[in-house]
Amino acid sequence: MNDQERYDNGMQVRRAVLGDAHVDRSLSHINDFNDDFQNFITRFAWGDVWTRPGLTRHMRSMVTLSLLIALNRGDEFRMHVRAAFNNGVTREEMKELFLHAALYCGLPAANQAIHDAEKVFAEMEAANPGSTTRARDGAQG
């Protein structure tokens, strides 16, 4: 696979996981300083790692959330909470993940993750108040 194919595959997965609106926002801020970085994350994070067959996107989201809790990366964590719903992760699964993370990452890290996730749930519900969202009830679809 060449770099362009890797980029194209990565962009397809990046859009499927993060959503077009998020990716379009990121790409609208490309400039001479961050252009190489955006290309890099699309090709390698999304085109190489997220396209591998060894884990489902659902599992990758769960692993990503876990790692971001452990590393205390709030902005990325909140972005991936939203993205996890695109990969079929439910609110109940996140609840269990946060409890599990409390054991291995520490109570403060899990507590912060719960608060951050609740903020994301509220934002998602406010943006789409008339519908049943996965953020509210864990339903698929």
UniProtKB/TrEMBL annotation:
Gene3D superfamilies: AhpD-like. One of its GO terms (molecular function) is peroxiredoxin activity. Residues 36-115 form the Carboxymuconolactone decarboxylase-like domain. Pfam families: CMD (PF02627). This is 4-carboxymuconolactone decarboxylase. The lineage of its organism: Bacteria, Pseudomonadati, Pseudomonadota, Betaproteobacteria, Burkholderiales.
